[in-house]
Structure formats: structure tokens, C-alpha cells
Amino acid sequence: MIAILRIGHRISRDKRITTHVALVARAFGAKKIYIDRKDTNLEKNIKSICNRFGGNFQIMTGIDRKKILKNWKGIIVHLTMYGENLISGIKKIDKKKDLLIIIGAEKVPPEMYHISDFNISIGNQPHSEVAALAIFLDRYTKGEWINNKYDGKIEILPKNKGKKVIIKD
Ligand code: SAM
């Protein structure tokens, strides 16, 4: 099971980017996202997508991050531009264990670097939590996320031109 812990979410400034983080998490194979600040609108938006497009992705906002981290039984990976190289770091992760991925918004508190089993960089340039998460999950799942089934009310069938959408009752 893969879960995401989003730290430093600022309700007005980060609403779009945290929505994108949650959508990428869901689409690329994570099962849960924890967001430190309470944001009912964000929860509503993500739940609405899940209702329509299926799957069993969960969102929880306003969580106690210290409690989540203390009680986590699996591996903790923090994505940061200061971390170890993706290619070498990812090989060391025990894939049989649950995985919690920490990503920041504003500056991440220093204890995140210490509490994590692995601090992993997606290149050492500053970019985006959305890109970092997508690339990490693609590599971690070896591209298998693409075969995930969601069984939603709305299903989009791949098509070169035009749109093919099935809407189930
Ligand atoms: N300025 C903040 C700091 O110094 O911690 C980081 C802001 S950055 C836009 C937000 C998040 O994107 C980071 O906390 C990290 O999780 C992720 N991120 C950005 N660039 C990254 C990179 N090259 N590798 C891995 N993660 C990255």
C-alpha cells in the first residue's frame, strides 16, 4: 500500500497544486493521501472525482502529522531535491512493505529528513512536487500503475482522435 503525506499545505495558495498532487497520487497507484491542514473543499473535490471515476482512494485533511509518522509501520521516503539519486535510492526500498511518501509545499521541517528511511531526489534541481511524485511512482511501480483498474461510473477509452466515454448508471 502506498500513501502520501503532504506537508505545509496552504489553503488558498496551494489549492490547485495539492489537488494535482492528490490526483497524481490516485492515478499513479497510491491508495491514500494525508494532508496536514484541514481543507474541506479539497476533500470534497477529490471525493467527487473518486465517486465518478472509481477506485478506493482516500483523502484525509487536518491530520496530526506526528501521529501518522509515529504509527507508520512501513518505509518512509521523503522526496527532496537534496536527497539521494533516484536510480540508486529506489533500489534500496523493500517493495514488500507499505510505503509513505512525504512531499512538501513550503519549506519542509528538518525532522522530515531524519525521520525518513530514504531522502530521494528526482534530479537535484528545484521543480515541482507534482512532477517529483509522478516520476517517483512511475519508477517505483515500474510503470505498472498504467494497468490499474478503477471501475468508475465514468470510463474513458483510449482513442487517437475524438473522445470515447462510457457512463454507467
Ligand atoms: N522550498 C521548499 C524547500 O526548500 O523545502 C521546497 C518547495 S518545492 C516546490 C515543494 C516540494 O516539491 C518539495 O518539498 C519536494 O517534496 C518536491 N520537490 C521539488 N523539487 C524536487 C526534486 N528535485 N526532487 C524531489 N522532490 C522535489
Description:
- With 169 residues, the protein is of the alpha/beta class.
- The protein has a single domain (2-167), classed as 3-Layer(aba) Sandwich (Alpha/beta knot), CATH 3.40.1280.10.
- It is 34% helix and 25% strand.
- The chain has six helices and eight strands; from the N terminus they run βαβαβαβαβαβαββ.
- The protein has a six-stranded parallel beta sheet. Strands 7-8 form a two-stranded antiparallel ribbon.
- Helix 1 runs parallel beside helix 6.
- The chain is globular.
- It starts with a strand and ends with a strand.
- The model has no long low-confidence stretch (mean pLDDT 96).
- The protein binds S-adenosylmethionine.
- S-adenosylmethionine binds next to strand 4, strand 5 and helix 6.
- The site of S-adenosylmethionine (SAM) has 17 residues, from strand 4, strand 5 and helix 6.
